[in-house]
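Renewal narrative, Specific Aim 1. Our central claim is that a sequence can be written position by position from structural information alone. The example that follows is taken directly from our test logs and has not been curated for this report. It begins with the structure tokens describing the chain, in the order in which they were read.
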């Protein structure tokens, strides 16, 4: 068993910048090793931590498989990609950035559809008229299925979205969507509204530990030191998000 602690962090975009700010706020410098386009990194002055830069979605997979000990990624990705998340990983601390709600949004013109129960009623009428189920465009297929089942909504089928999900109803590719939103502005611009009880998850970036990755005493000590250092400074890293 290696004494090295494997830390997975976002490799690009705002999440990468905010993660760097998080470490800076804790008095640590997170940096890439070698090329700026490389995928290896380190924490300056802290031995025993192997930093790997990967996409936020890949981090969830690495943690679930035990190929990283600890990582920073969105709770939405953890819940979507890991069916047995409570067993595979431990959410150690919310970090105060990367905030986004996973929501069910329908056309604003559907004035009689305000709640999930209304959606089930509308799906029955829709199928009677059109001979098919309502189409839900989303990248969050697992979260959608679990949430709709919990709400008793059955008259739908999922259309996996590979692009701008919020534009699919206007394009005629779906009737409604499940997507992430921060302010709701983009949804409104596309003629959509969030159902009153349609917030599936209020997500943000978390410090997450793998339950599948074996930890030596030295690596466990390093992990605890990082958790302690980072847990109290998450809000400072959110400044670039405001």
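The sequence written for that structure reads:
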């Amino acid at each position: 068993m290696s004494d090295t602690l494997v830390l997975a962090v976002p490799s690009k975009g705002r999440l990468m910048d905010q993660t760097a700010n998080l470490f800076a706020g804790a008095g640590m410098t997170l940096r890439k090793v070698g090329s700026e386009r490389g995928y290896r990194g380190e924490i300056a002055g802290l031995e025993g931590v192997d930093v790997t830069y990967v996409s936020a979605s890949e981090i969830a997979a690495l943690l679930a498989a035990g190929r990283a000990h600890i990582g920073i990624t969105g709770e939405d990705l953890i819940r979507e990609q890991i069916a047995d998340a409570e067993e595979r990983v431990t959410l150690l601390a919310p970090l105060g950035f990367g905030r986004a709600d996973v929501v069910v949004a329908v056309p604003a013109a559907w004035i009689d559809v305000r709640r999930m129960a209304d959606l089930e009623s509308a799906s029955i009428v829709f199928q009677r008229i059109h001979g098919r189920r309502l189409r839900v465009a989303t990248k969050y297929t697992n979260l959608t299925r679990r949430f709709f089942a919990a709400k008793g909504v059955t008259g739908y089928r999922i259309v996996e979205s590979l692009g701008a999900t919020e534009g699919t109803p206007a394009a005629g590719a779906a009737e409604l969507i499940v997507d992430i939103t921060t302010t709701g502005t983009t949804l409104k611009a596309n003629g959509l509204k969030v159902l009153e009880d349609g917030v599936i998850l209020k997500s943000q970036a978390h410090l997450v530990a793998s339950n599948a990755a074996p930890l030596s005493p030295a690596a466990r000590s390093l992990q605890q030191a990082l958790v302690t250092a980072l847990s109290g400074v998450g809000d400072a890293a959110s400044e670039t998000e405001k």
